[in-house]
Amino acid sequence: MYSRTKGADTFGVSGKLWREALVMYDRETDTLWSQIDGRAIRGDRKGQRLEVYPSVMMTWKEWVKRYPETQVLAKDERARRMTQSVYADYFQDGGKIGVRKSIPELQKETGLASKEKLLGLSHDTDAIGLPFSRLKGHPVVHAQLAERPIVIAFDEAADTARAFWAGTAEAPRTFTARRSDAGLQLVSGDDVYDALTGRRLEGEGPELAPLPSQVSYWYAWYSFFPRTRLWSPEAGAVKKR
């Protein structure tokens, strides 16, 4: 999710793909913008980037437990008559990828299916990916991004993951996970945090700063960050591919 460049800017779907991923356009200048990294790739604003707006992709069931007063975007009359997502076939077909059917060399090289869902993180020149299939059974992962310690919380019930800075290189913080009626929580000493927002619930430590991240298909993330380091539970940390 991105903040709009100006309050009046509105965006639409261009119908184009770039590096196998969706391309947006702004209606003010017809500039084309990449969905994955928020960068303008053609038009008057080429080279500009949209500001990442903190967000989380998770199941509606778990979201409404946390935020029962949530307002839901209402569709217009024509949209309400549509009973099926136009992307239903795409989501269900594991081999359907952008304009290609598959990327077999990618699965052979990395061991991940092209449409494996992962949490992608990038900072400076570093990028890491945490596949959801590997995160199952691992609600907390400690790793490094651009040589700084981070912690990743994986909430299997909500089908989502979030990442936060975890102290400094000189004084990294470590966490454990616990589940409460309010959802997954991260614990570090006397401090307890909401694992989705980083908000401190108990203790006196600093609140956790969320990292810009994306839940993405592996093939799309790889197209933008081919040197991504992939995490695996066997390694216990993110390693170079």
Can you describe this structure?
- With 241 residues, this protein is mostly beta strands.
- The chain folds into 2 domains: 2-52; 115-239, Rieske Iron-sulfur Protein (3-layer Sandwich).
- 14% of the residues lie in helices and 35% in strands.
- It contains 6 helices and 18 strands.
- The chain has helices at residues 60-66, 77-80, 88-92, 104-110, 132-135, 218-224, and strands at residues 2-3, 11-18, 21-26, 32-34, 40-42, 51-52, 117-123, 126-131, 140-145, 148-155, 160-165, 176-180, 183-188, 191-194, 200-202, 213-217, 229-231, 238-239.
- The strands form 5 sheets. Strands 16-7-8-17-18 form a 5-stranded mixed β-sheet. A 4-stranded antiparallel β-sheet has the order 2-3-4-5, with no helix packed on it.
- A hairpin with a 2-residue loop joins strand 12 (176-180) and strand 13.
